[in-house]
Design goal:
CATH superfamily of the largest domain: Zn peptidases
Number of strands: 21
Distance between the termini: 9 Å
Number of helices: 14
Radius of gyration: 24 Å
Largest sheet: 6 strands, mixed
CATH topology of the largest domain: Aminopeptidase
Structural class: alpha/beta
Shape: globular
Strand content: 15-25%
CATH class of the largest domain: Alpha Beta
Helix content: 25-40%
Strand order of the largest sheet: 1-2-7-3-8-18
């Protein structure tokens, strides 16, 4: 049997069916419960004779790997997805977030795009190649991990530290988030391959002051100090920094926007020196996040009673770093900007230095060709993701890691990630299986029939 002999339509339907079953397994993090999810994946793989191994970092926080063995003439490729999902409140959804509903050509459910659909497409691609009897030159390594939506400690980090043989022989990993943007505002679609991402530097600001009665408006109370410190931090500007991949993304975007709407995008660093352009550019939070260190206040706490001034007030700040940022320099800058010796700045965990994967590699070129196969008129560009994924773990372990999917996404899908009524089109799932299988043959080579 050859790839052409496979019933791709049937494989696509099988992928939709399995995705619906996978979505019905609640792996919300917290608490996780990924073991139930990876047990389901193991049963799918083992039904086709592909052995799977499961390892728990702690009880019920399971991770899985499985290999379609190649001849060893090429390095392997890690096909990664995370099993955990963010919580979903069913009161706000049109469908049961863990029901796997299909309506008007879409599969609905928490994790339908982020990122259980990717996992199912990867696994069905591997199963399809095995059914076709294709022997690749490199191993196709399925990797499903826990805890990406928190700190990865029970997932990718656990694998890298305690199950490193699972990554043995691999040169690169494919993870989240990439694909084709086909938005109404674009004159042609844009294909995105993630080559880096901003990483978190979680900070806590703790202000100290004298406790007292709420009827006395002490100017230097802890809450007042904290409010002023946050005001100074959020009002301050760090110089923008345009990485080469970011410049390439915006140049590509300029070519896909209507004429006259992308002034300055061809030389972003120069354009950002102009105050009017900078203010308009920074008004888009996605764009602002792409060119600098960002700070978002995500939690505030102080007193327990309205008429009692507390001696302490705290703020949680989500700081995100670009590749090349120095975490120590940023923390020092925050302290100098706040300029108050009664406000402590705490780093809540060791910083993760962002890193980048190159674009001049055969695998990057194969990913770009895969996207062109999905939409021939697509313009492909590298991108630096403003969120985070597990790719930093794989890069630290010595692998190139790319954010990739073969999905064509519009606003109706992309902007529902972590939101209400998350969904993916049935067509994306069906077509994604074949696209991923052809990608594996392209990257891992071989094609010999067993």
């Amino acid at each position: 049997m050859s790839p052409e002999d496979l019933d791709w339509a049937a494989l696509g339907d099988e992928a939709v069916h399995l995705l619906r079953r996978y979505l019905a397994i609640d792996t919300s993090n917290p608490p996780g419960n990924e073991t139930e999810g990876v047990a389901f994946l193991a049963s799918v793989l083992e039904k086709d004779g592909i052995a799977a191994e499961i390892a728990e970092a702690v009880p019920r926080r399971g991770n899985l790997t499985a290999r379609l063995l190649g001849t060893g003439r090429r390095p392997g490729l890690v096909l990664h997805h995370h099993v955990d999902v963010v919580p979903a409140d069913p009161r706000h959804w049109s469908f049961d977030p863990f029901g796997g509903a299909v309506e008007d050509g879409y599969v609905y459910g928490r994790g339908s795009l982020d990122m259980k659909s990717v996992g199912i497409v990867q696994i069905l691609a591997v199963i399809g190649l095995k059914r076709a009897g294709i022997r690749l030159d490199g191993d196709a390594i399925v990797l499903a991990t826990a805890d990406e939506e928190e700190e990865s400690a029970h997932g990718a980090e656990f694998i890298a530290r305690h199950r490193s043989p699972w990554l043995r022989g691999a040169e690169a990993a494919l993870s989240e988030l990439g694909g084709i943007l086909d938005r109404s505002a674009l004159t042609r679609p844009i294909g995105i391959i993630g080559v880096s991402e901003k990483t978190g530097l979680p900070l806590r600001l703790v202000a100290h002051g004298v406790a007292g009665h709420g009827s006395l408006p002490w100017p230097d109370s802890a809450p007042h100090r904290l409010v002023r410190a946050l005001g100074r931090l959020l009002a301050a500007e760090r110089p923008p920094r345009v990485l080469p991949e970011t410049q390439e993304f915006f140049a590509t975007l300029a070519g896909a926007l209507p004429a006259g709407t992308a002034h300055g995008y061809d030389d972003l660093a120069r354009a950002l020196e102009e105050r009017e352009f900078r203010e308009a550019f920074f008004a888009n939070p996605h764009y602002a996040a792409a060119v600098g260190t960002t700070f978002a206040v995500t939690g505030l706490s102080a007193g327990a009673k309205r008429n009692v001034i507390p001696p302490e007030a705290t703020a949680e700040v989500d700081c995100r770093l670009l590749a090349g940022d120095d975490p120590e320099e940023i923390v020092d800058w925050v302290r100098r900007t706040i300029d108050d010796d009664q406000v402590d700045v705490e780093v809540l965990r060791p910083p993760r230095a962002p890193s980048r994967s190159p674009t001049d590699t055969p695998i990057y070129r194969a990913l770009a060709e895969c996207l062109r196969g999905r939409m021939p008129n697509v313009s492909v560009t590298p991108a630096i993701l403003t969120g985070s994924s597990d790719s930093w773990v794989f890069r630290r372990a010595g692998l190139h890691s790319y954010g990739f999917s073969p999905f064509v996404l519009d606003e109706g899908e992309l902007f529902r990630i972590h939101g209400v009524d998350e969904r993916i089109s049935v067509e994306n799932v069906r077509a994604g299986v074949r696209a991923y299988a052809e990608l594996l043959v392209s990257v891992l080579g071989g094609g010999a029939w067993t």
